[in-house]
Every structure is written in structure tokens, then in C-alpha cells.
Give the backbone structure.
Amino acid sequence: MKPWLAITNQDFSTSPFITHFNLRVLAIDKNTSSLARNTKTKSKLELVWDDADERVIVPQGITALKELQSFLLTEGYKDRQSIFSQYGDTSVGLYIGDKVVPSSIANVVIEALVMRLGESGMPKRLGVQLCGDGRNSDYTSGIMIDTTPGAASLINAQVAVSAWSNATCIDGLQHSTNFGSFLVDTFKDDTAVSRASNSSASKLSKRAECKTIQVKSGDGCGDLAQRCGIKSADFTKYNSQTKNLCSTLIDGQHVCCTSGDLPDFRPKPRPDGGCATYTVESGDFCSKIAAANSLKVEDIESFNKNTWGWSGCNLLFDKAVICLSKGDPPMPNPIANAECGPQKPGTKKPEKGTDLADLNPCPLNACCNIWGQCGITADFCKNTTLGAPGTAKPGTNGCISNCGTDIVNNKSPPSSFMCVGYFEAWNQDRPCLWMDVSELEKRSELTHVHFSFARLTDSFEVDVSHVSYQFNKFKKLRGPKRILAFGGWVDSTHPTKYHILRNAVKMENRLQVAKNIAAFIKKHDLDGVDIDWEYPGAPDIPDIPKADEEDGKNYLGLLTLLKGQLGGLSLSIAAPASFWYLKPYPINNIAKVVDYIIYMTYDLHGQWDYDNKWASPGCPKGNCLRSHVNLTETMGALSMITKAGVPSTKVIVGITSYGRSFKMEKKGCVGPMCTFLGSSTESLARKGVCTGESGYISNAEIENIANKQATWWIDESDSDILVYNDTEWVAYMSDSTKRRRISKYQGLNFGGVTDWAVDLQKFGKLENSNLIEIIDKDGKCKWKTKDGFSCLDKPVRESGMSPKTRWDAMRAPCAWRDLASSWVDKRSSEGLNVTGKGNANKFSRHVSDLADGYENFDCASFSVGVNGCDQEDKCQDTEDSGPAGYFILNSFASIHTTFKSLWQTVDKIENGMQSKLDQLVETFAPDVDGSSEFNLIADFLGIAVGMFAAPFFGKIMQTKDSHTVDIKDLIANTASWGATVAKDIQNSKRETPKSKVAGKLSEISDLWTESIEAFTEKAFRGDDESVDLIGDLIADGKFNNDELTFDMSDLRKQLRKVFFAVLIPEAWKVGAGYAPAFVMDSGYDCNAVGPLDYEYIAPSTGEEMGYCYQGRRYYLLAPNGRERNCDPQVPGGTGGNPTDCKPNYFTAPQGIENLDPKNQGAYDWGGITAQDLVAGAVEGWKANKEKNGGGFLDLTKTSNYDFLLGDNPSEEMVGELDLRVAEPFDFFHM
């Protein structure tokens, strides 16, 4: 239903209506209250109106009339001639002359007018008036209804009432007609002379003064003479001192009814120096007041230059207290609902010299307007004074104190700009959009991570059991500060939980609370705590009792104690960006205690705005399409908190990774005045696939929608707007908008930004668009047989489909999430030590049990007996599992088989290589005696395992639909695990830094096999790292792949190549006389011919040992003695004279001819060539930032695997070896 009814071209003069009714009119003597005999006069009401306006909301006019009618009937009129009523943009003004009974207006005229509006609609302005035909103001009445937007409607109603109070009919409206006729009862006054009632001069005049009456609007001299009970000639005589009296009569003017002087009615100042005061009544105007008090209009203007609320004679306010003499201005009358300024009820007059505007300042130093209302928008904060204090230009509400919306307290920048990310630890409870907290280590832009949310129990103990899996990972996070957040909307407002935080801040509890929280933070070595209580002191949170007004003060007490308990650790709070909810916070004092404040400058609008006329300016029902991250409103909120006394450097400004969505009422109507459907508690917006909540949708889901058929733009609120499916409207922040906002806030010297929430930004690495679409169909992540999945389904039967397609179609990511979560819960609840004896296989056995797999599913070991992990499972339709479980178990088995293949190959390689050790020494270091030692450094084992594991896993996991970049990262991560395990084992068993060649191959082989066993056990042990690694390996069905093959011959070749790639350069080191072999960088490209001939090398050596690599010419060389030969016995020597010394040429390293593929004999040294050694040396030199002496790169780090995972890793696998690179003249200085 639309919120207004349009009336177009409606003719009010022809609408059927009741046109005759009776209106009782009485004359009352105010002294005797006796009723006079009445006379009946038939009179008519006139209906006047402007054309219809489709923006008019008819119910507003009816409501305003009903309120006014109720006041007349139940409140009592209390001698007031004018009343005004307002609802939304509609104002109603009523004037009733002194001789008209108010209940007649209520029961007859207003009731008839309400019926008229209900049947015929409401034009822009509509009036009913009884005026003219010689009536004075006592017998005049009228009602004006005005729907002009803003303050103009009330001003227009006041203008009409002012005209009727002067016995004048209103004109200027476009149409008029006869509204109805009735009989007016009138009677003659019993008392001929009445006296003034607005000052002490109304008493009987002195003997030399005449008796007086006051002029009523519409009176002529004849009327006055009749009221005096004298002849017109006598009236003229008694008032002869006033020139042109009959043509200049003014309402309220005193005239004589007897002989004597006209008394002086001018009020006198009070003895205390204050001016004589007068309270303005409805229908008053300055000439009337001046005439009644023997003053001129100019006198009133002069007396009131400093009077509160004095806006001049052209704009008098009902009940305003004004001066009618010289003297200090008075205190203004109170306004019943004023909460700031001098008109707040109960305010006492301050000492002389005190600025009245400074009385009763608003909370948070917010702006106070002339009506005593507090706010932070321009409507409250713009000073439009007319000169006198407490005044404002017509149509504005004018600010009187703390005016302006500028951001203050921001002169200095913060020491560093913070970037805070909130992490929803419960995110795996939703069907998708899962994120692991460990992923945040890669987010270098984050300075702080707020882990949401820990809980307090009823006994105020810290509880993270509901998020223990992620919390245990969070503790290990490295990089950003780790902040544990408490509270949140649910724990703050849920009917079963809200009491905990309210009780926690009470005086008798807060010390215990502070100690418990601080102890927990220190125990787990965290960096700080964040309290997100929503909201202390709030009176209107649905479904829970009104909060205690002392909450804010108590909250400060808890924070003060907690800061003391934390020592140097961080403390922060989250605070709302709403004036209404921030009011109870003593935020200025809180800012002095905490390190920073998370300022929630989001959710500025939402479904809850529906039916709230104050929520959205210009939107009577509140249901207009407005952005929850509107920049203008955000800047107003930033002004509010800094004006409240909080330095900008302590304010962390909110940005979002979610949008607020609405169901549009009308297709194509997308602007800020367009409306949405639903109610304040029910959104009809489409739910997100993962977030599953109407009205709330993540950036990841928004991006997924935007990539399809949708319309997107940035609106005037600096928000991104998305419209899809014709009537789905979303406001959010894109990455570019976030960057723009961050730059703005940084330029204003705020302390940083906070993003809710980092897990809403992108889909996880296991979540592709195909899976999201599947989940979108039913809203849940189902995967079991009972959910409709069968072993007969096509993705199970047809292995020719890509592994990834099969994996997604059977919901294997959902199955893995459930199986892994079940294991983590079991491990946590039972307190399992996964590294304890006999526990290595509990993880794989638990997964197999849940997926209805084999018994003895011992994937963490290479057991001799029956091992279910050694064999492929068969798909069976069981109630508690499904095809996805079968896929996962087969993937486990494939990973286990991969490790076992490595283990078996290494175990068998020793026999084939042992006999080559002596030959290696004879070939590459022939001058070394048998006692010489190879420098097999501790890193050798680790590098070897890493080097052969990486290409091996790479070949297995490169399926036809895998993503190369992601696979490379995963392979590097897996191989680095192996290198880490191997390095640990080698370091634990080494006896000396050197190991002799003889007999050492067997030891190395044993260590390799032991490393692979340990690698396998660690991969399947079931701790957090293990679960993550296995999850990464099986993702996309990489190991549920019928194309997987294990070529042992390739693996053996790979191992031999690694082995000799390391040992040959080591042999050259041992056999070198002056220096070992090295790679010379010629400085020339590959096209240069003999660039170093006769200078450093003989031409024949250059031709033999020159190699081209990546477009540059290198040489593999060894020194031949010293740099220069000065021995006289040597040809070319000169007997020691340095100037005559002959340069020694570099030569080929020992045995290099055996690495020429053309000259290799029965044994090929693992297939290593001189070209391989050059390429490996250059890559190692580059990886060490073009420096020598780095030794083997640390292959326990994933970043050092790029060289192994190129397009042809088998050719570059020897990219890390200890062979130095130098330019010729640098060699002897390396």
C-alpha cells in the first residue's frame, strides 16, 4: 500500500456533503458568568482551498484535526482563542472568537471536515471560516489545514489565524464555496464597561481619569458607544483628546466611557531592575499590545532587543514573555518538552551576565535549537538568529548553543594510522562464505584483528568454547595485533543474554569482571580487549527491559578498572554513531581511559526505519531508499563525537564489507524518495546465499550478483548502489569507495578505520561460483544420501568429468566442512593430544567412521598390516554419508599413497647409488686423499626433501581444471612442510658439522625415509595445521582423480638428480687448491663471440665452458693457481717482478667433461649437465639478492619455491646449490 493518496482535479464545490448544521454561540459576562437572552442569526461557513497536490498525505491532516478535536473536548479550551496542531508536514490552525463555544467547533465543524477529507481527499491548503458580514473578532472563527513541506505549513496556519483574530476573512486561495449554514446565538452584554486585564491599569481609574473599555477587532465608534451604554455624541465628547479616533481604532486600544483623562497604562520596570513583562496570547499583535499599554510599536521593539525569542513584531510567538518597559529581559517561559537551553522546565534564572544560551547544554555538546531540542544535523546546528537571543529566521529552527557541524579536535595526525578488521569467528556456521582466521596473516594492510566474539558467563568467566577452533588459531596469528572482542548485538540484546553485560558493569561486580578478562587476555598472550556493548542506557531495544540510566556511568567504572588490570595491553570499545544511542555514554571521559574507539559509522539506515517519521528527513513513513553508509550523515556523526570531546586520533571510523538491502516498492524508482516494502521488523529483500538474512548481504555476495545482470552506480551519498532482479536495492561500499573513504578520514587526522567484517569480503578458496549457485538453490550445504545424493549420480559414475566438477556437484566442500568440524569438536571436547603415543591415526579414523569408510583407516602411518588407507574405497549409499564422503576418503587414501611412494622410492635408492660415491670423488676431486671430508651441511637434508617433493606433488596435483597460481602456493606449502620436518630430524641427530663421504649415503637415505614418515604423520595427525593442509590438498578434487599416476622411475631419477646436484659442487670445494669452481658472468649477451678470450680464459676454454642462460653468457670455470704467475721458472714468469707477471687463465673444473651428455658413460650422474649447474647457480644468486655466500636457500619457506615450479620444473629443480657467481675481476675478492 502506498503511503499517500493522490487527489487530482477534484472539484470541492460539487462534492456531495452535509451542508446545514447548528453552531451554538454564547455571550458570557466574565465578571458574573450569567447567560443573557440569545437571538438567532442564520450564518454561513465558507470553504476555501488550493488545487490538489499528489504528495499530500491525507491521514496526516485527519490525524492533526482529530488531535485538535480531542483537545477541545477533553482538555478544555481554557479561554484560549488560538490552537495549532501538527503531524508530519501538515499543520492545522484554529481560531475561535470569545463568544463561540469551543465544543460546537469540535462536534460540528471539525467532525464535518474530517468526513470531507476522508471522502474527497486533501488539497494543498484547505480552510473553513466564519467571518465578515460586520462580525468583530469575538464572533469570528476559522480552521486552516496546510500541507506545505517544512516549517512553512505552520507559518501559513499562523497567518490565517492572525487574520481571523483581526476579524478579517482570508483570501488568496484558488477556490471557495459555501460549506454550510447554521444559527448563531447572540445576546447583549449586561455590563456596559469592562476593564483592561493585561496589566495593573485594568483596575478602576483614579477620580480624575475616565472609565475605559478596550476596542475589539471589528468595532466602530457606534459599537463602542453602545458597549459603554452612552450616546454616540457623548462618546465622541469623552474621547475628543484622540484625533481621528473613529478612523484609527486599534484592537486593544483604551477609550473613555465617561468624562476624565485617559489613564496612563504604561507598565513600570520591576524594583530588581527587570523589565515589566507581558505574556503573548494567541491572536496578539504588537499594535494591539501597544494600544492596551499606552505604548507605541517602536517602544516594544526597543524594549525587546535582548529579550529571549524576540523575533520582532512581525513574528510573535504564543506564550512568549516580552518586555513592556526598560529593564533586564525576563526568563522565557518553559517549553514542556525542551531538554536544553533556558526554556527547559525547572530552569532558574542565572546570575547576571550569564548567557542564557549556555544553560542546560545538550549531551555530547550537541546543538540546541530555539525549541530546546538537541540534535546534530544542520536543522539543529545552523545559527540563523535575527539578532535577539533565541531567535531564528522563519522556516528554520535556529541553533542557540554548540552550533555548527564541523569536525573538531583534529589538529594533529595519529602516530600511525590503524586498519582494524573484525573477524566473525562463527562464519562456518553459515552454508558458505567461510574464512579461517589464519588467512589474515597474509593481509599485510591489517594492523589489528578483532576476534568476535568472546562471551561472559553469568558468573563472569570468559567463554570461547563456541569458537574454540578459530580461537586457537587466532592465538597463533602473527603480524596484526590480536584483540579479543566481547559483546556484539546478540549478546547485548538477546532476551536470555542481555542481563550479563548490564550486571557486569555494576559496582559490586565490575572488579571481578575486570580481573577475569585481563587474566584471560594475559594467559593466552593476546594484545588487548575490545568491548562491544550495544547499548548502555538504551531505552528502546526490542524485547528486553529499558536499560538503567546509570549504565553509562557504570560502564566507565568497569573500563577504568579493566585498563588498570590490563597494564600496557590495549583496551577499546565500540560506540554507536547515533546521537540517540551515544547520549548515555560519558564518551569524553571514556576516551581518556581507552586506547581507541571503534566508531560504528554504518547501519545509519535499515529496515527498522519503517514507520519512523524521524529516521529519514523528508520521508514521513521512514521507508525511503537510503544508504546505511551515507557520507553526509557519517561526517555529521564524526562532528558529533569530536565535538563531544574525543580527539580524532582516538576515533577509528567504520567502513563495511556488507550492504543493507531493501525490496523496492516500484520497479525503476531507485532514488532517495522512492520507498521500500515490508515493516519495521520484516524485510522483503532477497536473502544472500550465504548470509541468509533479508536486508543484510555481504560484499562477496554483492560482487557475485554484480558480475551477472545488474545495475550499479555511486549515488550522491558516496555509496555504491546495486539494483538487480528489477526490485532488489542494495547500498554498500566497494573496494574503491573504501579506499576513497579511507583517504578522506586519514586526511582529517582520524586514528584509522575499522571494517565489519573481513570474512564478508571475498568467497573462500574452496568456494567457486558453481558451488555458490548450487547452494543458492536450497539455501543449505547438504551432501548426504538422505538429502538426495546417490552413488548412481552422474558425477560419481563418470570419472571422465573434471575432478573439480565432480567435487562441487556432490557438495564435497560441504562434507569436508562438516567432517573437519566434527573432528575439531571431538578433539576439543575429549582433550586429545594428537602428538601423543597412539593418537596419530585418530583423525583419519574419525573421518572414515563418519563417512562410513574402512576400519583401520590409518593414513598417518605406513603400517605393515591391513591399512584401510592403502586401498580405494567404494561408493555406498548410506544414510549418514554420501558420495562426497566417498570422494573425501579416496582423497585421503591418494595423499597417503603419494607419501608412501616417496618413502618406498627413497628406501630403495641407496643400493643403486652407494657404489658411485668413490667414483664421484675420483671424477670431480681426484687429488683428494681418502680421508678428506665433504661439507654436508645440516640444511642439505631439508633442501633435498623439499626439492624432490615439490615437483613430485606438482605433477600429481596439476589437474586439467586446476588454477596454476593456487596450485603452486599449495605445492610450495606442502613441500616446505617436508623440508621443515627433515631439517628438524637432521639437526636432532647430527654429531659434527662435517660428515665423511664413505658410508654416509646410507645415513642420508635413512634420514630421508624417516623424514617422509614424520612428514606423513604430521600431515594426518589432526591438529589445526594438519586439518588445514589436508583440506587444501583435497580441495577441488585434486586427489579424487582417476588420472593420478605414480611413476617410480621418474621419482628415482629426480632423487639422483637432487643428490648429485648438491654433491658435485661440494666435491669441487674439497678438491680446490686456491678456490672452488664458480660461474663467471661475462657481462655480455649470448651473441657476443669470445668476449673474455686472452684476458681471463683461453679461447678453447671459452668455447668449451660458455653457456647461454636467459639471454646472457656465463662460463663454468675453476681457478688455475694464483691470479698472476710471477715464478721465473714458469714460462712467462719474470722472477718476481709484479709488473712483469703473466695472468693465469681460468680453466674448466675437474671432471666437467663427464657432465657433457655426449661423453657420459654407463652412469649419467643423475642427468646433471653443466648447463643445469649454471642455471641453478644463477637462480640461487638471484634469490640471495645477487650476493654470494648465502648457502642453500631455506626451503622451509614457501616463498623460495618459485624456481622449482616453473613451466618445466624438471630442468630448474637444481636451482639451489652452493656454486658462486661473479664477474671476472671480482672472483678473488668473493
Summary: The mean pLDDT is 83.
